[in-house]
Structure formats: structure tokens, C-alpha cells
């Protein structure tokens, strides 16, 4: 039975629903396609829809006399209200101009002008006029959407109703180009388009994790700013439109979707799930890459857009994401992103047909660097064998005169053949056919080589030792220090060079051995190995400036691990200065020195200097090393932690995700370097107020580090990080217990009882003790630590500033405004030369100052301070938890001034964030809950 026949016998309500569904399907189609769809309908239905469509584009043609009342009523219901003219007001916003209109309503550019700001926004007038119950649900949906906080999602800022009752939402205005125009204008290649898509998909995944579905993914809903960052528009607006149409549309939708992009279940009115967005992303990606929405379907495209040809694997990924049956699609957006990442990295994709030939080809592509190294080693060995063969022939020609030389040549040739046989045997034993594995990791390849040493090279101990040292380098590169040291120790035993080349090769082995010992905190042995390497270079190559720089770099690292930071910094600065003056730059030495010195400066909280050094190191290596190479992960980690210290946590998180992807693709999910990256992830999550995720990251980092590295000081640092995030969440007693577990372990590993790391840990413990209630004792400890920091670090260092800051925090908790303002003044004066003006700490300083002024009865001055802090946080994308804490404190000042309604309004914004992020015992939340109770607000139901 046709749908039109169904309509003729349906109830009036069902007819209205069906007409509305067909109208929304047709309204955004191109004219020729709309005419084709209309021609296929029955005459009465076609006539009704033609009238509705004419009304939608502003036609003044009136329905003919005698037309059915149902269609006329529906026409009035869907007739768009005239767009407010420029200068009109919608709530606190002034309309500038109309940006566009469509099936969901009209979009306006507007601005809001405050005392010291002008904010441009996009206002979407949603079609229709809801009932009171629908208004309540619209407000609920808007609150959910407003919680989406992702750098690639245009924020939902506000919402309400116009004076005549039409609902609207206020969204961030994105000044940029539509997605396809950006692709065309910048002539993006395949990998650039995929990287852009990955950021869009990450935004969708972020929303899915918060139970929000977009429902209308298409290129016109993505704007790309001038800096290349995409912003996904209209997140959940389709759901808001559905909500405004009545309760029956909450779970399924035939009303709000765009032809060509909607999933089959949307078109049929089925259940809308995250799988619908996976389908939408598949269509969007196909159009980004090829210009086609569906395979073979030509679409109007921006001038200059170049469609790309896709290989079979990419086509398979698109087909899997866009499967008609939701159960056959990728289960999540993250799974789709993962397969695209695997394709970019040259690894097997999950939707590709499995075969030995396919696995082997992907293995070679994935490990081009490793295979190239192995192939290079094989070629070197073959060349060596050939060279020795030539020498052997010469020796045979002069057998009478050089019998000894002949025997030596034959011995060297045999050694080379043994090394060649060993390497080729290892590669063959790890081929996909031999291992029956679809993927072969670099770690598995090395393990196979290591395990075969004794069996294959036992008869040639010299070759065996050299291969052991080679494997030691490779395990160190994979961040497996314990195994690397074991191989180095065996490979270095009895090694004595006979000429310059052997000596320099041995010195390089000793450098790596020294650095790996340092990671395991065997600092005395590390320094001894570095000194032996320096002595070899001095003996065999005293004139070689580059070799001297290598020695200085290794010695600097050994001093750093031994706690002599001043000597380490001086040596690294020598390397950078002298290496930069050489005619031929020693790039690898300079790059390593830049990274290492930046890490040292970061540990000293000199993060701006660290970033400058990292930028210089990246400039040296630009064009010489792939930015996606695992070699860059260490540099990226140092940059991440510097960004966190400078308050740029969102930037740090984006870089960290990239570093983790690179590390996982190269080595897998378990390595010492991954443990370090997980620790960095915990730091980022903690700064963002995502304490549950921070705890999980720190615990994963600690477990992985203990299993792979087993270093007491690293375990102590993991415990300290767990203690810090536990304190931030509000469990002060548990935090103190964790600090008390960690401090003795760290003290046992530190050579200096007053080392910076120990003093920082004691400072954090004092803060947790004070917030837990023992304020006087904690303040005494902090005062002593401040005096010690001034003595050891100097007044211009970061540590004296932080000890003064923590005293101000505890004095605020103790309600002692006079001493608190003094401590705060000391802290801010010391921080200003060290941190950028937009750092969140300066916003927090406004908050502390406002709290102290409120205690002194200066409510107007307190309000000014808190308002300044809030403006600064919001202007620089502050963490939602920090904004909520400041809003709660501003509410308290409102309450003190008798402004109870203003206090309630701010608390209603702040309390959901506080309740989600921290425990009821956390001091800021506890104060906010007490204020809410005093103001008659509903208590937290979870308590």
C-alpha cells in the first residue's frame, strides 16, 4: 500500500504528522529533485505540499478557496515567522542581520554588548510555539547541550523565547568557511582532509560520551576558522526541534533530517542512536574526500574542489560506516576513527579482508623505518661480505706474503656472514606466515632476535656482543630500560677497541647505556659510563668537535639524573651554543640537547623558557624528521607538561592525544614511554577538573611503570600525583595517607634531602593537611618551606611563589583575611614575571582577593574582584569547575548584599558542575551546598 493511500484513511493527527514529515524531507532538496519527488505523489497530497513549500519561501499566494482546512491549519503552523529586522532585540541580544533559514527555522547574527565586552552570537529561531510542558523539556535539553565542552563544537550559550513565544537558542558564532569551501580553497590533500575529519569525529565522540546525538551531520554544519580548526554547528538542535513538536518525537524522528545525509532509520522514523551519527559521518567524509554524497552521485561543489580517488581500504571503511543496517556499522565513532588512524599509519584495518599477503604488505608499510633499518643492516652486511671477499681474493693472490692477513680476512668474512644469517633468520622467523599473526610489533621482532642470540651466535662471542649492544639501543628506543641495560651489560663485557672507528662506536653504546642507567636511577653507574665514553673519545678522536659535544650531552644527562641540575644545565647550554656554531650542524646532538634542557627547565617551572627551546629544536628538525615519528614523542611530552604549567591545558590535551596515538602505533599500548604519557594525561585531566579520569590515568601509569621499569622514585611520583588529585576531589584524609606513603620512598631515592622534588611534595602534603582541618601546623610547614625556597632557589624562582600561594589558600580556609592578603600579594608579585598574563592562576588570585575582601565586609570590592576573575576565566576558555567555584563564591557575595535571586541563579549554574566533579567533603562544594540550603534551593539528591 502506498504512503499516500495510508494518509487518506488516517486520522487528522496522523495526516498532520505525515504532511509535516514529507514537508521536512522536501524543504531542503534542490528544485529539480523536489519536483521529481512531488510528481510521484497523489494529486491532493502534492497540492498540499506545494502550498506549504510556497509558504516556506515567503510566497504571498493564498490557498485556493475551498482547500481543505487541515492543510490550511498546518500551513499556518509551519509558516515561518518573519525574521526580526536589524536592530531588533531578542532577550539581551541585538539583531545584526539574517544568516540564513531552512526547515528548522531562521538563523540570525546578533551581538550582546556589556560594560567591557562585545560578543557576537548566532541565534536560531526554532519553528513553532511550544506548550508549557514542551517549554520545560526544551529548557532541559538546552541545559544538556550547554554542557558540551569541546574545542571543535560551537558552544550553546543561551536560550529562551521571544516576546511572542517563539523558542530560540544562542550559539557561538563561528567566523570561517563552510567545510567544503575550506577544502577547496586550501587544496587539502588526502591526509590533511582525514586529519580535519578526525577533529570533527572527535567532537561527535565527545558528545556521544555525554549521551548527546547530533542527528544532522553534513558539511554545511561544519565551519572551519582561519586557523584551520573546525567547529561543528547545530549540535542537538534537531533534538530541540523534535522536543518542541511533542513527546512522541523524543525517541524516533521522521521530522528533522536532511535528505542525502540522514540514516535509513531517520528516513523511516526508526530509533535514533549514535549509529545514526556514524552514518552521517560516513556521508560527510565521502563528500569531503570525493565530492560525492553517495557513490556515483554528483553534487554541486565549491569552485576549486578536487575529488580524490580512494583505495580499496578507504572505500571499505566508508562502506562499513555507511551500512544500511545500524548493526553492520562501526559500533562507535571512536571505532571508525581508529580504523582511519590505522589506515594512515599503514596498519591493517578491521574491515579489510584478511590474507597473509595483505598482512605482510601492511607490516612493511607500517614499519617502513624499522624495515628500512633492517634492510640497511642487511645491505651493509652484504657489502661488508663483498668487500671482505675482495680482500680475501687479494690475500689469496699474495698467500706466500700475507698468510696472517688472509686468515684475518676469512675470520672477518665469517663474522659478517654470521651476523647476516642471524638478522635474516630473525626476519624470516617473524613473517606473518611463520607467526600466524595478523600484526607483528617491533617489540615482538626484537624479542625474537634477543631470544635467538645464544643459539645462532654462541660460537662467535664477539659478534654476539655487538648484536647485544645493537639490541640494547633498540630496546632503549622502545622505552624498555631494564631489558636494554641487561643487553648492554652483557654486550659491553670485555669490549676494548683497537682503532678509532671501534672506539667511537663503543662510546656511542656507552652513552646510551649511561642514559638508560639514569632512567633506572643508577646514577653513579650512569656517570661512570658517560665518563668512560668521554675518555674513549678523548683518546681516539681528540680533534673531533662533534664527538666532544656527544660526550658533554651524555655527561649532562648523568649529572641531571644525579641531581646536579646546575651542572647539567651548564653542559647542555654548551652543547647548544657550540654545536650551533659548527659549519655542519650536528642535528641529532642539538635536538637531544634542546629536548633535555627543556625538560630540566620544565621541572624547575621555567616553562616559557622550555617552550622556546622546544620551538628551536623543532625548527632544526623540520623537514628532516616526520612530525608523526616516534622520535618526536619525548619532545611532545616535554611540551605537554610545559603547556600544563602555563595553563594551556586544552592545547596540551590535543597534543597528548596525538603523542599517544603515535606511541601506540609504533610500539603498542604498553611501554615505559606510554606510562609517562599516561602520567601526563593525569596531569591534564587534573587541571581540567576531571578528577575521576585523572585518577584512572595515574593508576594506569603507575601499574605500567612498576611492571616495566620498577623504579622507586617513579613509583613515589605516581603516588604523589594520585595524592594530589585525591585532594583536589575533596578526600583530604586519603590524600594525606598517599602523601605519607610516597614521601619516604622519594626521600630514599633523592641524594639531596632538600631537593626540589622533595620540597614540592612536602608543600603539597602541607596543603592537604591544612584543607583537612589542621591549618596551623600546615601553615608553619609552608612558612618554613618558603624560607628554604628563598634560600635555595632565590626570590625569582617559582617555588617561593607557590609556597606563598598555598599559605594564602589555607588562610582563606581559616578565614584570616589580613595574613591571607599579605601571602597572596607575595605570591602574585613573584608569579607575574614567570607566567603569562592569561594564566588561570591570576584569575584565581582575583577569587582569593575577593574572598578576603568579603570577610572584611567590603562586599562591593569583593564583587568586583570575583567578576574580574570570572571574566578572565571565560575569556581564556577556563575550566568549567574553576568557573563553577568562582560562581559559587560570587553567589555568596550576592547573598551577603541581600541579592538572593542573583545568588540563587548563580548557584543553580554552579552546583551541577561541582556535584559532578568533586566529593561533598570538598571545601568549595561544601560551602556552596550550605549557601544553597540557606537560600532554599533543593539539596543534592545523591547525598
Verbal overview:
There is one protein chain. The chain has 943 residues and is mainly alpha-helical. Among the domains are: 3-78, no CATH class; 89-352, Transferase(Phosphotransferase) domain 1 (Transferase(Phosphotransferase), domain 1, Orthogonal Bundle); 837-943, Tetratricopeptide repeat domain (Serine Threonine Protein Phosphatase 5, Tetratricopeptide repeat). It contains 42 helices and 9 strands. The protein has a 6-stranded antiparallel beta sheet. A 3-stranded antiparallel beta sheet has the order 7-8-9. Strand 3 and strand 4 form a beta hairpin. Helix 24 packs parallel to helix 26 (587-603), helix 27 runs antiparallel to helix 28 and helix 40 packs antiparallel against helix 41 (900-917). It starts with a helix and ends in a 9-residue tail after the last helix. Mean pLDDT is 78; it is low at 1-14, 58-81, 240-255, 352-364, 375-392 and 399-443.
Amino acid at each position: 500500500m502506498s504512503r499516500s493511500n495510508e494518509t487518506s484513511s488516517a486520522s487528522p493527527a496522523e495526516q498532520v504528522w505525515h504532511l509535516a514529515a514529507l514537508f521536512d524531507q522536501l524543504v531542503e532538496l534542490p528544485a529539480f529533485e523536489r519536483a521529481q519527488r512531488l510528481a510521484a505523489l497523489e494529486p491532493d497530497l502534492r497540492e498540499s505540499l506545494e502550498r506549504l513549500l510556497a509558504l516556506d519561501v515567503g510566497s504571498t499566494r493564498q490557498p485556493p478557496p475551498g482547500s481543505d482546512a487541515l492543510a490550511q491549519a498546518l500551513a499556518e503552523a509551519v509558516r515561518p515567522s518573519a525574521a526580526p529586522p536589524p536592530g531588533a532585540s531578542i532577550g539581551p541580544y541585538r539583531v545584526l542581520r539574517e544568516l540564513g533559514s531552512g526547515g528548522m527555522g531562521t538563523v540570525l547574527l546578533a551581538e550582546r554588548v556589556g560594560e567591557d565586552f562585545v560578543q557576537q552570537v548566532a541565534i536560531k529561531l526554532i519553528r513553532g510555539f511550544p506548550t508549557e510542558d514542551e517549554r520545560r523539556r526544551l529548557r532541559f535539553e538546552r541545559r544538556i547541550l550547554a554542557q558540551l565542552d569541546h574545542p571543535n563544537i560551537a558552544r550553546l550559550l543561551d536560550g529562551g523565547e521571544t516576546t511572542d513565544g517563539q523558542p530560540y537558542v544562542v550559539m557561538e558564532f563561528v567566523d570561517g568557511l563552510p567545510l567544503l569551501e575550506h577544502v577547496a580553497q586550501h587544496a587539502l590533500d588526502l591526509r590533511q582532509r582525514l586529519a580535519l575529519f578526525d577533529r570533527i569525529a572527535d567532537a561527535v565522540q565527545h558528545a556521544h560520551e555525554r549521551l548527546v546525538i547530533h542527528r544532522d551531520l553534513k558539511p554545511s554544519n561544519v565551519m572551519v576558522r582561519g586557523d584551520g580548526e573546525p567547529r561543528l554547528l547545530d549540535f542537538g538542535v534537531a533534538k530541540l526541534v523534535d522536543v518542541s513538536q511533542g513527546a512522541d518525537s523524543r525517541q524516533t524522528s521522521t521530522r528533522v533530517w536532511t535528505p542525502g545525509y540522514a540514516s535509513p532509520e531517520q528516513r523511516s522514523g526508526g530509533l535514533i542512536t549514535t549509529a545514526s551519527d556514524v552514518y552521517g559521518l560516513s556521508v560527510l567524509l565521502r563528500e569531503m574526500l570525493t565530492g560525492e554524497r553517495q557513490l556515483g552521485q554528483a553534487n554541486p561543489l565549491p569552485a576549486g574542489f578536487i575529488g580524490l580517488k580512494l583505495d580499496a581500504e578507504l572505500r571499505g571503511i566508508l562502506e562499513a560506516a555507511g551500512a544500511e543496517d545500524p548493526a553492520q556499522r562501526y559500533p562507535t565513532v571512536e571505532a571508525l576513527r581508529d580504523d582511519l588512524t590505522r589506515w594512515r599509519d599503514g596498519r591493517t584495518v578491521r574491515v579489510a579482508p584478511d590474507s597473509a599477503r595483505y598482512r605482510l604488505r601492511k607490516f612493511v608499510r607500517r614499519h617502513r623505518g624499522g624495515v628500512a633499518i633492517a634492510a640497511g643492516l642487511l645491505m651493509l652486511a652484504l657489502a661488508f661480505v663483498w668487500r671482505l671477499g675482495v680482500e680475501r681474493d687479494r690475500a689469496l693472490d699474495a698467500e706466500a706474503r700475507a698468510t696472517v692477513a688472509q686468515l684475518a680476512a676469512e675470520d672477518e668474512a665469517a663474522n659478517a656472514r654470521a651476523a647476516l644469517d642471524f638478522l635474516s633468520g630473525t626476519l624470516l622467523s617473524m613473517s606473518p606466515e611463520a607467526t600466524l599473526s595478523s600484526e607483528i610489533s617491533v617489540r615482538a621482532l626484537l624479542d625474537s632476535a634477543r631470544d635467538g642470540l645464544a643459539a645462532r651466535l654462541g660460537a662467535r662471542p664477539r659478534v654476539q656482543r655487538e648484536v647485544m649492544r645493537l639490541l640494547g639501543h633498540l630496546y632503549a628506543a622502545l622505552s624498555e630500560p631494564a631489558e636494554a641495560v641487561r643487553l648492554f651489560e652483557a654486550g659491553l663485557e670485555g669490549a676494548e677497541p683497537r682503532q678509532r672507528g671501534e672506539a667511537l662506536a663503543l662510546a656511542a653504546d656507552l652513552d646510551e647505556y649511561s642514559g638508560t642507567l639514569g632512567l633506572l636511577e643508577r646514577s653513579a653507574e650512569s656517570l661512570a659510563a658517560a665518563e668512560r665514553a668521554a675518555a674513549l673519545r678523548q683518546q681516539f678522536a681528540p680533534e673531533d668537535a662533534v664527538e666532544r659535544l656527544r660526550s658533554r650531552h651524555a655527561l649532562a644527562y648523568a649529572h641531571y639524573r644525579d641531581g646536579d641540575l646546575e651542572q647539567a644545565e651548564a653542559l647542555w647550554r654548551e652543547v647548544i651554543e657550540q654545536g650551533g656554531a659548527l659549519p655542519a650542524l650536528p642535528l641529532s646532538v642539538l635536538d637531544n640537547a634542546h629536548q633535555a634542557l627543556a625538560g630540566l627547565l620544565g621541572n624547575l617551572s621555567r616553562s616559557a623558557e622550555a617552550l622556546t627551546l622546544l620551538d628551536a629544536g623543532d625548527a632544526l628538525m623540520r623537514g628532516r624528521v616526520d612530525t608523526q615519528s616516534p622520535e618526536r614523542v619525548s619532545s611532545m611530552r616535554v611540551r605537554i607538561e610545559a603547556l600544563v604549567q602555563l595553563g594551556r591545558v586544552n592545547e596540551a590535551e590535543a597534543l597528548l592525544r596525538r603523542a599517544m596515538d603515535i606511541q601506540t602505533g609504533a610500539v603498542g599500548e604498553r611501554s615505559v614511554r606510554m606510562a609517562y604519557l599516561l602520567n601526563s594525561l593525569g596531569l591534564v585531566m587534573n587541571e581540567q577538573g576531571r578528577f575521576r579520569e585523572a585518577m584512572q590515568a595515574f593508576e594506569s601509569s603507575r601499574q605500567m611503570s612498576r611492571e616495566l621499569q620498577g623504579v622507586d622514585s617513579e613509583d613515589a611520583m605516581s603516588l604523589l600525583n594520585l595524592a594530589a588529585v585525591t585532594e583536589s576531589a575533596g578526600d583530604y584524609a586519603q590524600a594525606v595517607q598517599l602523601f605519607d606513603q610516597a614521601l619516604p620512598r622519594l626521600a630514599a631515592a633523592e641524594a639531596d634531602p632538600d631537593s626540589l622534588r622533595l620540597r614540592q611534595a612536602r608543600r603539597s602534603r602541607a596543603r592537604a593537611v591544612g584543607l583537612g582541618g589542621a591549618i596551623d601546623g600546615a601553615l608553619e610547614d609552608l612558612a618554613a618551606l618558603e624560607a628554604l625556597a628563598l634560600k635555595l632557589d632565590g626570590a625569582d624562582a617559582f617555588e617561593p611563589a607557590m609556597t606563598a600561594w598555598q599559605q594564602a589558600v589555607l588562610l582563606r580556609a581559616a578565614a584570616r583575611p589580613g595574613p591571607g592578603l599579605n601571602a597572596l600579594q607575595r605570591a602574585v608579585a613573584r608569579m607575574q614575571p614567570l607566567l603569562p598574563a592569561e594564566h588561570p592562576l591570576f584569575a584565581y588570585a582575583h577569587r582569593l582577593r575577593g574572598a578576603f575582601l568579603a570577610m572584611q565586609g567590603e562586599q562591593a570590592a569583593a564583587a568586583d574582584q570575583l567578576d574580574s576573575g570570572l571574566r578572565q576565566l571565560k575569556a581564556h576558555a577556563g575550566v568549567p569547575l574553576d568557573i563553577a567555584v568562582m560562581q559559587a563564591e560570587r553567589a555568596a557575595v550576592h547573598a551577603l548584599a541581600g541579592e538572593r535571586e542573583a545568588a540563587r541563579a548563580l548557584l543553580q549554574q554552579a552546583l551541577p558542575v561541582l556535584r559532578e566533579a568533586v566529593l561533598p567533603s570538598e571545601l568549595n562544594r561544601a560551602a556552596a551546598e550550605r549557601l544553597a540550603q540557606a537560600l532554599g534551593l533543593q539539596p543534592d539528591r545523591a547525598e
